[in-house]
Structures are given as structure tokens and as C-alpha cells.
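Hi F.,

I've been meaning to write this up properly since the lab meeting, where we talked about keeping a consistent format for the predictions we share between groups. The idea is simple: the sequence comes first, exactly as it goes in, then the C-alpha cells exactly as they come out, then a line or two of notes. No screenshots and no reformatting. I'm using this chain as the first example so we have something concrete to point to.
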Amino acid sequence: MARKKRRNTKELLRLGLGVNLLLLLIVGVIALVSTNVMVNNVEKLHHYPFTVSNSVREISYQIISIHRDMKELVLTRTEAELDKIVKGISKREEQVFLNFELVLNRYLGNMSDVEIFKRDFLLCKTTRDSAILKMRHKNYNGETEKSKAKRNQHIDGLLKHSQRLIVFADNKAAEFQEVARQTQLKAYRAVAFTFLFSIIFSLFIGVGTIKKILSEERESDELKQQLFQSSKLASIGELAAGVGHEINNPLQIASLASEKILLDLKKRGADSTSIDETLE
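Output, unedited:
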């Protein structure tokens, strides 16, 4: 019985250790998965919304700068000044096209919005190139109020396009951030729940094991007490048997002696009645 109890206690301890290891493994897996999700969201924030919003802001800055350079271009008096400003405009246009490539590759919304934005910029570039060509050939007679209003209207349209793209990218970034935050909260909750359950289960196993050990110790003490009592009774029995033996031996001897005396008397012819009366 005691051996069976000890075996049950060992099995309970093994079960507790196994469950704790399993819970630790679950916590590790949850933490790993949550970390990967948050890392992916951070990468998305960097590669998509943030890249798009930064690129569109750069495009807007370059458009405004080109618009300012065109105003300065009208005021030029020499070919050298004109070449210098045109070269600066060309570099800005290159930056705009590079940023358009980034936006087209990483924009998560409707791609037609980006394509319309780029098309309008190309239309402005065509008008701008025509004006620069006229300036080089001295055929530019200045900008009329109508053309000036039209150019300003194009610039305003481009800036509105860019603002819409920036707002969309910022909203998408906020969405990714919210997903990352929710994932982090879920991970914290899962880890906290698993950790709490592990503590409770460990306490349950520990208390159960302690109770079993104490119960086995009590049973062992009771068994020792019973063995001690049995040993005492056995000693008393042995003592009683020895005393009985010591008393029985003289009685046997006396009985044998009395029988021998009776036989001797009968052989001598003594009356049995007188013998009985004598013995009484």
C-alpha cells in the first residue's frame, strides 16, 4: 500500500513538471508569435505608409520649389542664369520621378490615385518645358493672367492630390499601429493568463504532493506503532508460554509419581477403596 502511494506521488510530481514545461513552452511560442507580428507591423509601417507619406511630402516640396524656380526663370536676363535654373528644375523633376516610383511600388490604396497624380505632374511638365523652350528662343512674351491662373490651378490640383495620398498613408500607418498595439495587449494577456495558470497549477500540485507525503508519513508511523504493539504482545506470549512450561513440568512429574504409587499399592493387595480414602 505504501509503495503504491509513493508511486502515485512520483507520478503526480512528473505530471506537474510536465504541465509546467508545457505552459512555459506555450508562453514562449506566444511571445515569439507576438514579437513576429509586431515586427511585421513595424516593417509595414516603415516600408509602406511612412515611405509613401514621406515620398509624397517630398514630391510636394519639389513641386513648390519648381513653381518658385519658374517664377525666377521669367526674370532671368542671361543665358547662363536660365541654364542654371533649368538645370535645378531638371534635378527636382528627377527627384519627383524617383519618389513617384516609390509611391507606386508601396502605395496600399487605389493605384489610380497615384497614376492621376503623376499624369497631372507630367502635364505640368509639358507646359513648363514649352515655356522654357520659348524662353530659349526669345519667343516668350511673358505670362498672361489666364495662363498664370491656369498654372496656379494645376499646382493647387497637384498639392490636393498629394494631400489625399498623405492622409491615406497616415491613416494606414495609424491602422497598423493599432493592430500592433492590440497584438501587444493580446500577447500580454495570454502570457499573464498562462503564467497565472502555471502558478495556480504548481500550487495545486505542491499542496497535493505535501498532503500525500504527510499522509504517507502518518501511515508509516501508525504501521510502526502497530508493529511495536505486535512485538510487545509476542514477547508477552513467549513469556507466558515459558512460565506455563515451567509450571507444567513439576505437575507432570507429580502426576507420574502418584500413578506409580497407585500401581505399587495395587500390586501389594491394598483395597482400592481404602486407597481412595487415603488419597482424599
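Notes:
Helices lie at 2-74, 79-106, 111-136, 145-267, 272-279.
Residues 41 and 165 are 20 Å apart (CA to CA).

If this format works for you, I'll send the rest the same way.

G.
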